[in-house]
Amino acid sequence: MKKLIKEWNEFLLSESGLSRLLGHIQEHDSAIISAFRNEYSNEENYERSRKLKAQLLSQGYGVTKIKGSYIENFDTPEAIEVVEQSLFVSNRSDDDKFKNNLASLGKEYEQDSVLFIPKDGKGAYLYGTREGNDFPPLDQTIEVGNIKMGEESEFMSRVKGRPFVFKEELETYESLSKNSKWALKKLLDSK
What we know:
The protein is α+β, with helices and mostly antiparallel strands. It has four helices and eight strands.
């Protein structure tokens, strides 16, 4: 019985975390950013993350730590989830410079991209912040879709262990953005 109560409490905490996050997304524009890079040690990455969080807080944004992850070898028996600390950022002061500030920080912390989430959670997109990166290219965007709470995918984030992703229900060539069509063509031309 104790085990059942403990599992139920953990479930409630997880659901509460997702609900709070969704509440922030519904009230303000948001973003997800990280300071982690593979070429740095864990200690260096956590220090970079602390500095990034301090910069975000000093600009008046709401910040909470989340786990960002992606699946290496997605949809294969060798699939493994790779996790890094990310920061969910809420533009609670509705700062007009929010996107520019976050894009600049993405560049400063050598990130491939920053995920921007419009106020309603629909039409989230990656904004390229690293020169030489193809997904997305520097200063370009790639739409990733709408928020889906409780779902796992190749790229996802977690709050208190519960996943959330951004994706579209059905993707067709016609529905792709100009940048997505360009990326698709580039991928096909590389074969």
